[in-house]
Amino acid sequence: MLPQETDVVVVGAGNAAMCAALAAREQGVRVLVLERAPEAESGGNTRFTAGAIRFAYDGVEHLRALMPDLTDEEIARTDFGSYTEEQFFDDMARVTENRCDPDLTEILVRHSRATMMWMRSKGIRFAPIYGRQAFKVGGRFKFWGGLTVEAHGGGPGLVEAQAKAARREGVGIAYDARVLALLADDDGIKGVRVRHQRRTTEVRCRCVVLAAGGFQANPEWRTRYLGPKWELAKVRGTRFNTGDGIRMALEIGAAPVGNWSGAHAVGWDRNAPEFGDLAVGDGFQKHSYPWGIMINALGERFVDEGADFRNYTYAKYGRIILEQPGQFAWQIFDRKVAHLLRDEYRIRKVTKVVAPTLGELVRRLEDVNPDRALATIRVYNAAVRTDVPFDPNVKDGRGTVGLPVPKSNWANTIDTPPFEAYAVTCGITFTFGGLRITTGAQVVDTDGVPIAGLYAAGELVGGIFWFNYPGGTGLMNGAVFGRIAGEAAGRAARHPR
């Protein structure tokens, strides 16, 4: 049974929500988490991620403080480098085309390391991302792209660790509890209407933190806001993120803000199911495209696969794939780079073609013009600057010359059998449009006035990401503003209006 009243209700049970719940509980108030999904599918998109988290750090000592079990041997064989706040700011500005909200971005960056250490204090463990963010060159691993750390156990491990911490600290968690509406009057939030285990009831509270994700699992909203064809995209994560949190806030006058026609979308296996599969996790993603080329149904390249590190392009290339004829593409590699492909290329559920010659390969590419594809590969091979050394750890400048669609870095000729190709479509992760909040994570109404008792964090907040995002920033954003929202809600709940 749900309680009839509490102090703070948190809507959602992913990373942002649980950070909010833990922070609110620190204020000594009663906290109830209401999660729409059953427990086995709880955690929103967090459960489907690999757990990578981007934050600013000045060197290995900052990493060692976060990961005290980092060994001397690991440090000796690894170049962790640094990722300064200035670099974080630059990346946010560059990939969002300088549209990210400056005040919210300032908080995201400045609070990133302190928030990681706070999560560590709650029992969340972290580890270096050796398998996906570091290549071994000259006997040492070197991290690249500003992304170094992941949650222990990936997304599922993060969900379980946060739920364990919440229960330990006395936070109530109810599953199969879909919040339908906010109860509010002229003085602000009074509670929520919730459908719990197929029965509708109300829970009175002093504050609500909305952290229920974006609207990516809602095909009607995707088509309405993102545009035509978006109903055809696969959903990388949970089926439960249908925009409920955004909708109920808008219904009481909250202000929408941000890139409502934008979304984080990646290359995803063409034959993946409609929604994420927890047995596969993020294994349907295909992010090693910088080492090869992508060809569409016409047999043509359509994007610069080496424009930047994968971290800075993968979240926008899904949209470009969706715009191709048939909404798919094939990623093509040869034996020279096969050892660089990420583990997701080796799962059982993969749409893959292998051939001993390029002629046979293109004939096996389903729904592709084989003659044009073969000609495209040959023209590409002839344009590669083979005089420039290949180095996967840096933007090596090994590009192409004279092509209408260039490849700026990591250009390798495709000439060494066996040849491999992988079919991808668009997989949407989360949407960028959402609710306007203050720097204290309080939701603002359409008159620009904060709504008393209402806070928000995570994917349903707008204004932070536009067009694209730096990899690993989603979890950091959720954690930073989840903590701020929870702390503010907890303080406000101690002092009734």
**Helix count from the secondary structure assignment:** 14
- Largest sheet at a glance? 6 strands, mixed
What proportion of the residues form beta strands (DSSP E)?
15-25%
The tally of strands reads 23
> For the largest beta sheet, what order do the strands appear in spatially?
9-2-1-13-23-22
Structural class label? alpha/beta
Radius of gyration: 23 Å
Unreliable runs, pLDDT <50, ≥5 residues? Answer: none
Helix content: 25-40%
Task: Let me know the average pLDDT.
Answer: 96
Task: Name the features.
about 20% strand; about 500 residues; 14 helices; six-stranded mixed β-sheet
Characterise this structure:
- By secondary structure, the protein is an alpha/beta fold.
- Helices cover about 30% and strands about 20% of the residues.
- The strands form six sheets. It has a six-stranded mixed β-sheet with strand order 9-2-1-13-23-22, with helices on both faces.
- Helix 1 runs parallel beside helix 8 (about 155-170), helix 1 packs parallel to helix 14 and helix 6 (about 110-120) packs across helix 14.
- The two termini are about 25 Å apart.
